[in-house]
Amino acid sequence: MYTQAMSVGPQDAAAKVKSPEDVAREAAFEARIDAGDFIEAKDWMPEHYRKTLVRQISQHAHSEIVGMLPEGNWISRAPTLKRKAILLAKVQDEGGHGLYLYSAAETLGTSRDQMLDALHSGKAKYSSIFNYPTTSWADIGVVGWLVDGAAIMNQVPLCRCSYAPYARAMIRVCREESFHQRQGYESLLVMMREGNAAQKSMVQDAVNRWWWPSLMMFGPADKDSPNSEQSIRWGIKRITNDQLRQKFVDATVPQAELLGITLPDPDLKWNEARGEYDFGAIDWAEFWRVVGGDGPCNRERLAARVKAWDDGAWVREAALAHARKQTIKKEQAA
Ligand code: BYC
Q: Which Pfam families match (predicted)?
């Protein structure tokens, strides 16, 4: 059936022309952003601002949930009870971060089911880093040190994101990420200071595999980042991908020296004139391959999430049935 609402053409073109009210609203919104105001869920916002936030926050939430998988893989094989308890707490925290972030994204009018559908159908992105395998116990320490370290570097500025519900979620997430980074680094220090030669070389091997993918977490170079300019202008992102990557390298090199490991980059050296480290070229072809779905573990990660969702169907149905029963009881009592 062809209805008025489905028609395309001049009507749609007309719909795209902004009304004087919209122009005024947009100007008022931009003025609030320029003044450093925070935007709340019920405030008016341009459609593109809303879409950008839903994209970024939902990708972030998916990353937290998929990020539980590579580490969850080692819970049953942690070397001591203490390490197992720490790892369990960390993986649970990641689950919690995912939930705060889905809630923040829902305030923008997109349902959790829509976001999860996008993840399960392979349409939504999540961080490239979680498509790499964790093949030894040292990987768990290195993920804490480098991956959570990169995450904090990226996420601390997000505590000042112009969209207040996201900023508020990030404050709590960052506190927990800081514990995650420290536990990873501490476990590596123990291996490097008290471990045998095989354990030390296990740490070096893990660093060799995770260093470059950790640098890729910050996203494409600024010149190739289609979203950065607008997101910076709107205060969604406060610092660019390249600036954050540089800050991460500068903070991490001294930590690597203290550990006594070598970072796998022959071009890494202190640049006196610029007051920061120079580092080698990132393999962007690898980055885009992994983002495009063809990394070492993309299929495995997605299959694990889809299976968990399908296996949990009965729990969701039971919870709904219980909620319905409670509502009926309340209605009958009223
Ligand atoms: N992986 O224009 P750009 C964690 C995509 S979780 C995959 O620069 P934007 C943790 C990007 O989405 C870590 N895709 O984009 C959890 C865009 O594609 P679309 C996750 C990437 O949004 C458990 C395209 O490339 N952190 O910390 O301005 C355990 C062009 O990029 C990646 C967050 O999500 C990537 N690495 O900037 C431990 C933080 N990079 O969407 C740790 C919040 C880029 O246009 N997100 N892409 O199709 C952000 O800060 C920004 O979204 C990004 C990208 C800096 C990641």
A: PaaA_PaaC (PF05138)
* Residue 19: predicted pLDDT: 87
With a pLDDT cut of 90, the percent of the chain lying above it is: 93
Closest among 22, 140, 163 to 91, alpha carbons compared = 140
How remote is the CA of residue 219 from the centroid of ligand 1, in Å? 6
Q: Of 71, 63, 61, 89, which is closest to residue 169 (Cα–Cα)?
A: 61
Q: Whose CA is nearest to atom 39 of ligand 1?
A: 60
Which residue's C-alpha comes closest to atom 40 of ligand 1?
219
Q: Which residues contact 187 (CB under 8 A, 6 or more apart)?
A: 83, 86, 140, 141, 144
Phi, psi dihedral angles at 281 (to 5 degrees): -75, 135
The answer on pLDDT for 13 being more than 60 is no
CA of 125 to the centre of ligand 1 (A): 8
Q: How far apart are CA 226 and CA 215, in angstroms?
A: 18
Asked whether the beta carbons of 192 and 260 are under 8 A apart, the reply is yes
Q: What per-residue confidence (pLDDT) applies to 15?
A: 53
**Which of 161, 168, 127, 159 lies closest to 146 in space, CA to CA?**
127
